[in-house]
Amino acid sequence: MKFDGKTCWVTGAASGMGKTVSLRLALEGARLILSDRDAEGLKETAREIEQTGGSARIEPIDMTDTEAIFATARRVIEEGEIIYGLYQFAGISQRSLVAETPIENDRKIMEVNFFGVVALTKAVLPHMIENGEGQLVGTSSLVGKFGFPYRSAYSSSKHALHGFFESLVAENSKYNIRVSMLIPGRVQTNISKFALKKDGKEHGQMDPGQASGITAEKAAKIIIRGLKKEKREIWVGGKEMLMLHIRRFFPRLYFYLATRIKPM
Ligand SMILES: NC(=O)c1ccc[n+]([C@@H]2O[C@H](COP(=O)([O-])OP(=O)(O)OC[C@H]3O[C@@H](n4cnc5c(N)ncnc54)[C@H](OP(=O)(O)O)[C@@H]3O)[C@@H](O)[C@H]2O)c1
User: Fold this and answer.
1) Which long-range contacts (CB under 8 A, 24 or more apart) does 239-246 make?
2) 104 belongs to a structural domain
């Protein structure tokens, strides 16, 4: 498939993979709708897109605000945008043990990573069905495929996305709705800096493992290639992706390794 002339809505577009994928989609000829809670960051992404001759519209959204999500989508559609693709990157991570994590943190992570995604998808899906086509993208994680220490809520939110999107595509592939799930491993972005600690504060640093990951630019290249092929699942990372095979074919080895992860 080609993005040329299509309108693509990207969340989390102020930084990291949401930003680099937006820039690449624009280079492919797409018109962008950019969302994030960081309005200043969105202006910068839009400026960079316009510098390369692309076109972008900014729609700041807090993904925990369900009413705002539906109101924004309604307005965007009423104003005549024909949304071809919805690429959802907005998310927050976690650095705390199950036993010490207050339930409020679990809820907050689910609100952003799961309910926010579900709300925006529901707000746009009927429009896509009416248009006769649509590409939906959910951003999971390696830990959306298996559990991992210090990520209980984060891992749960990403697992939940798989159930949601898999059901959605089973119901809607007859309307030409395609779904791709992104499975990033380690990508050098701000995700670990803003991860929630047990006290609700930010982790504030990039973990060494993540710092050794691929760049957000390289991730975008892999993602766009996978999206053009409309792959059901797009793996985005380096050698850490081996864990997916270990989990699948050698589950006991995976459990052994998982219990030896050091606190971070
Ligand atoms: N980087 C990795 O290694 C990795 C691995 C697996 C999965 N992922 C997933 O990839 C996606 C993109 O993350 P990234 O790595 O590119 O990190 P990132 O640079 O931190 O991007 C995440 C974006 O989401 C925005 N966001 C957070 N909470 C929001 C909310 N309530 N409403 C609206 N926007 C919100 C952030 O805005 P602020 O800047 O204002 O916080 C930020 O711009 C996430 O879903 C993440 O879980 C990343």
Assistant:
1) 240/142, 240/185, 240/186, 240/209, 240/213, 241/142, 241/183, 241/185, 243/142, 243/146, 243/185, 244/142, 244/145, 244/183
2) yes
Structural domain span for residue 230: 7-258
Considering the domain boundaries, does residue 1 fall inside one? no
Comparing CA positions, the residue from 87, 200, 231, 95 lying closest to residue 155 is 95
**pLDDT (tens digit, 9 = 90+) per residue, 112-133?**
999 999 999 999 999 999 999 9
Number of domains in the chain: 1
2, part of any domain: no
Kindly give the distance from the C-alpha atom of residue 173 to the centroid of ligand 1, in angstroms, as a whole number. 28
pLDDT 10s digits, 166-206: 999 999 999 999 999 999 999 999 999 999 999 999 999 88
Tokens of 132: 């006769």
Please identify, by atom number, the ligand 1 atom nearest to the C-alpha of residue 112: 31
- Is 145 within a domain? yes
Query: Does 175 qualify as catalytic in the annotation?
Result: no
Pocket mutation for ligand 1, best pick of 9, 37, 151 (most atoms within 8 Å of C-beta): 37
> Ligand 1 centroid vs 92 CA: distance in angstroms?
5
Distance 11 CA to ligand 1 centre (A): 9
Task: Round the average pLDDT of the chain to a whole number and report it.
Answer: 96
